[in-house]
Amino acid sequence: MRTILSAFSLIIFFISASCKQDSASELLWEETEKSVQFRYDPNYSEDPRLISDLVRENDRICFISGEDPNFSIRICIHEEGISEYIRVLSAWKEGSLISEFVSTLSDHSEYRIGTYLFSGIKKKVKDPKFGLVGDSKLKFLSASDSVWDRSDFNLKNHFKTFSIFSLSNGSYFLVLPPWIGSEVYLGLSFQASDLEKEIRNLIQEKNRIGLGTCTSSIPIITEIFGETNSNLGRWIEVYNPHTFPICEEGLELNLFGNKVTLPKTTGFISPYETRIYSEDSASLESISFSGIKWGDLKKAGKILLSRGDQSYEFNLPGTGYLFGENYYSWKGNTFSNCKTSSPFCMDPGENRTTNLESGADCDPNDFVLEELNPNGLLHKGVLQEDWKYLDLIYTGNKICDPSSLKISWGKNLFPIKISKKISAGEILSIGNLPFLLGSPSYSFSIFKSTSTTDIVSISNSNGKEKVLWDGIFRTSKGIPNRIVLQKTNGETVSICFENGESFLHPYFDSYLNASSQSAFSQSAIALENPRTSAAIKFCSKSKTISEVKFSEISWMGSYQGSDPISKDRFLEFVSIGDSFPDSAFLEIIQGNGTVVSIILPLEKEGLSVLSSGRSICFPQTEFWKDPSFSLPSSGSNLLKVYDPNTGGVWDEFYYSSSGPGVNDTRNKIRKSAYSKSGSGVRAWFASLYEGRPFRDPSCSFTDAHPGFLE
């Protein structure tokens, strides 16, 4: 108890000192002998102070609760009962129940204070003559019109606050709502002459002033939340940023052509007042709002708050609000910051007039893209298509917080959330990567319907945006029509970036790489996905001087029995030299001048084979897959393969319907063309199948050997 009293003495000292320095406080509370005083001034044009605590004021100890001085109650108590009062107050804040305590107010009248569950509050408040309700849950204690709520008075913030009831026995009962995470209420009963009349008269008088001085300006929308599955419900936050009240009459929300008038309350929105308009089922303290199509908050577009020919536009995110296990609200340019352990990353109903951006926030310009994976990753032989990800590198000089940033990839928009600040040179991974869960530099997101040509950008809450990838894959040879990033067995290849240049991800050896202690390299996923390196700073262009040659070409496809299989067309490449290039730039030049260009990965060792997908006649052979791949079977055609880094020609091959290779449509025979070198001379021949690879028995008139040298 001595510890509590000592702590309280310090609190009283500091609060008393601050009050003496604040001349405004002295004006707000007139010196009076009254033990209980209610204040209401919605036209007060400064930020109110949220309070529920004891203060020393004019040599008296008083409990003040509410939005001081906008909407608050002051109850001054006798010092003899201060220690017990503090004990009850502490129990309420801790969420514990404590027996009712009896003492006296400063005017020597009796009061009782204790903590209660909701059932205890219901017993205390039975058919009140009058009630001022700051917690919507308590409104249902009486169906009487004499219970006033948020529609009868204005609060600057849309939080639960105190409620006060006038009871039939002439006493009053003050109720304070539970603290977050608690179910325990604070209750205080007392006597006060004419308090009900004072409350009614003051609210009506101040509301008349607000209604008489309000203007037809437009408030602004500051925050929305539109996720269906949350028990919070869906809501829209509206804020008056002006020092004068705004009239309610004529204000309406327009969501994709559906116009709904805002519900009428006191007739005006106070200076710096924040309101929450929500669906009926919302658990927040809010104003019920029906008629709006709440599901439209997930659509891309705008919501308008308007009156006549005036309107305020608020951008919608065009996505959901649930990312992983966290719910995020949307602020028009960014998702809310999430710096607590709560699953709800938002601050609904909170009055804010300051810029949310802080000096510790990261600048979007200080990030570059290091790796982009648009296909997902192979896991236990199955391609996990939602395991797409982005790796960013932070290039700034200061340690900063990226939680105010959002990432955009195509139609996907996600907040960035990591559990630490980021330093120069660190990598930031964004995507759906289970093996990175718990990593401090990993931000969970599920990218859907993305492609290599979708733009990637990063932006902050002020609208500053940097494009990290414009969707154009540039090489020294030029811009390819198509990019091959997947094999028929599900193996994928990421796109790498270095000094602003894009290239296909080299092979990643998790055992030799210096970053082998990372979560990725230590997982089995690294072995199945050797052309990726999630959360590792790895991308670097190959300096190989080796060449790549065509080794086998099936420009006609296969025959399965008498059925032509054109999709079995393929190209086979072989690396010549001591090292192996990571990729090649292919050109297919048709006789009519049409040119198709493709960038494709190359195997680390052995032969690389390109086709449109899995082969009918060679079903066990794995191909690099380009679904649009084909080769012309008539006319004169030229194939060229280039070094994508230098633009130099590695090899070329000319063919026509007469060969090299065989396309005998009468006898249903097809033979690919393959090259051999002898005595320094290279020649092309028609293939003879010699048992490898496996060939479907029904394809006996097809001679080829993709993936094997004859």
UniProtKB/TrEMBL annotation:
Highest taxon listed in the record's lineage: Bacteria
Q: What is this protein called?
A: Lamin tail domain-containing protein
